[in-house]
């Protein structure tokens, strides 16, 4: 079975990455290769890293706002530069009513604070594109 | 992957597409036959880049130092590739690859390519995939290639099998037992870096390393490995490390050692590939039952049995199935 490669990035200006690290470890424990890029990543940086790492999934985390602009920007750049087959997902502190707009903008799923890690991992397993 | 898609991928690669380079590395890494085919073609374009191995304990600052060195090389307008290897969990097969955290700004540099890799099945040693990724980035036109591995036994020795210059990174305060264990692997370092010199005891470690190096002084090539102090996250001392690399490179080139060393490394690599192919053939359900039962009945001794097996192996076509 082909190994799933996931890039986990924390966008936005705050320096808290505990949530992003928890999800990064959960992906690793689920047998995936996780490229962790750290805090305060710009969309351009995220996508440049995603390209070089040839990931199947880009996982974005945001806690302090900014996601309404940053997530769609990443999704757009990923689509332009890597194609449709890369899954972009997001998580963090994101108000329920903003989720539809994010999905509209190409974020495949948005996971709020209450989501179980298993749910996120299952989502990736089901939706990742395994064709090369 | 069809031959048309493969051809297209190669063309994009030659046009300088990072996406193409990244996909080629993935193909090679997952042992896709297309990856082998591409590597065959790229190999003749490689061999131009200068390979620097960076090894040492986890957390010693290897990635931070690499980031600093790459930035200096970028000021000289060099194209740089980085392959950063971290351990794969033997239990889950997963890996947390965190080296990019220290190299965030470099991601956007069009002349820098960074790739993180897990050790995957290659417990201990440097994976074939990492070696192959270096070939790909070399063919991609990188003037300098860095390979970062966590210093744990075999991978540390292996790094000397691919790198022209090996940098051993160390930090003060790891304890004497660890220092003692180091004595055995000191021969492979061309440059020793004591990082985190902002902490106490850096000078003590420098003296320790220097005295250990003097003890083991058996260099036929007359290169005296320098011991350099750095504070990598500030970039302090890193210019001296780069100067050390350049001095070592000049030494290798002027003495002609660069040629003999590379030849020796390639010889070792080909022999390893032979072993790998034989092992693959043997584990692929090679018909050995009959021979083995004859050994069991003492009709045949193991040595003769092995020779019989090798002979029948070479009769088969190795290319039939790509590794
Ligand atoms: N005190 C101190 N910390 C450093 C220095 N260089 C790197 N670090 C920190 O050491 C930690 C490990 O660095 P990293 O480059 O990831 O180490 P690696 O595991 O060897 O690649 C990070 O938190 C760095 O910020 C330094 O010169 N002094
Ligand atoms: Mg590192």
Automatic annotation (TrEMBL), chain A:
Gene3D superfamilies: Cobalamin-binding domain. NCBIfam families: acid_CoA_mut_C (TIGR00640). It comes from Thermoactinomyces mirandus. Residues 3-131 form the B12-binding domain. This is Cobalamin B12-binding domain-containing protein. GO terms for molecular function: cobalamin binding; isomerase activity; metal ion binding. Pfam families: B12-binding (PF02310). Its cofactor is adenosylcob(III)alamin. InterPro entries: Acid_CoA_mut_C, Cobalamin-bd, Cobalamin-bd_sf. Signal peptide: none annotated. SUPFAM superfamilies: Cobalamin (vitamin B12)-binding domain. CDD domains: MM_CoA_mut_B12_BD. Keywords: Cobalamin, Cobalt, Isomerase, Metal-binding.
From TrEMBL, chain B:
Pfam families: MeaB. Gene3D superfamilies: P-loop containing nucleotide triphosphate hydrolases. It comes from the Bacteria. InterPro entries: AAA+_ATPase, GTPase/Isobutyryl-CoA_mutase, GTPase_ArgK, P-loop_NTPase. Keywords: Chaperone, GTP-binding, Hydrolase, Nucleotide-binding. Residues 48-192 form the AAA+ ATPase domain. One of its GO terms (molecular function) is GTPase activity. CDD domains: MMAA-like (cd03114). Belongs to the SIMIBI class G3E GTPase family. ArgK/MeaB subfamily. This is Methylmalonyl Co-A mutase-associated GTPase MeaB. It comes from Thermoactinomyces mirandus. The lineage of its organism: Bacteria, Bacillati, Bacillota, Bacilli, Bacillales.
């Amino acid at each position: 079975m082909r190994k799933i490669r996931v890039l986990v990035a924390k966008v936005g200006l705050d320096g808290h990455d505990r949530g992003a690290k928890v999800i990064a470890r959960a992906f690793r424990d689920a047998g995936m290769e996780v490229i962790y890029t750290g805090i305060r990543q710009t969309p351009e940086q995220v996508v440049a890293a995603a390209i070089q790492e040839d990931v199947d999934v880009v996982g974005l985390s945001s806690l302090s706002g900014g996601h309404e602009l940053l997530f769609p920007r990443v999704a757009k750049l990923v689509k332009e530069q890597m194609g449709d087959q890369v899954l972009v997902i997001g998580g963090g502190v994101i108000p329920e009513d903003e989720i539809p707009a994010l999905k509209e903008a190409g974020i495949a799923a948005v996971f709020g604070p209450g989501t179980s890690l298993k749910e996120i991992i299952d989502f990736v397993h089901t939706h990742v594109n395994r064709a090369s | 992957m069809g031959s048309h898609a493969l051809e297209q991928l190669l063309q994009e690669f030659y046009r300088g597409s990072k996406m193409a380079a990244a996909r080629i590395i993935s193909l090679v890494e997952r042992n896709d036959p297309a990856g082998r085919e591409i590597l065959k073609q790229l190999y003749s374009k490689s061999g131009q880049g200068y390979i620097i191995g960076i090894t040492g304990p986890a957390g010693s600052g290897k990635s931070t130092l690499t980031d600093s060195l790459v930035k200096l090389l970028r000021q000289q307008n060099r194209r740089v590739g980085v392959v950063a290897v971290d351990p794969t969990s033997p239990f889950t097969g997963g890996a947390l690859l965190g080296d990019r955290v220290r190299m965030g700004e470099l991601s956007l540099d069009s002349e820098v390519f960074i790739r993180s890799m897990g050790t995957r099945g290659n417990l201990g040693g440097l994976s074939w995939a990492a070696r192959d990724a270096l070939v790909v980035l070399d063919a991609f036109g990188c003037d300098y290639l860095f390979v970062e591995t966590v210093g744990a036994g075999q991978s540390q020795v292996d790094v000397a099998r691919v790198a022209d210059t090996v940098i051993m990174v160390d930090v003060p305060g790891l304890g004497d037992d660890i220092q003692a264990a180091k004595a055995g692997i000191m021969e492979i370092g061309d440059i020793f870096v004591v990082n985190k010199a902002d902490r106490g005891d850096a000078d003590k470690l420098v003296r320790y390393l220097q005295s250990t190096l003097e003890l083991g002084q058996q260099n036929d090539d007359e290169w005296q490995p320098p011991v350099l102090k750095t504070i990598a996250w500030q970039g302090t001392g890193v210019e001296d490390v780069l100067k050390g690399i350049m001095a070592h490179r000049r030494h290798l080139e002027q003495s002609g050692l660069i040629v003999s060393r590379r030849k020796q490394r390639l010889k070792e690599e080909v022999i390893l590939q032979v072993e790998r192919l034989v092992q693959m053939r043997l584990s692929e359900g090679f018909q050995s039952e009959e021979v083995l039962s004859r050994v069991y009945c003492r009709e045949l001794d193991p040595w003769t049995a092995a020779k019989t097996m090798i002979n029948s192996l070479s009769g088969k076509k190795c290319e039939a199935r790509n590794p």
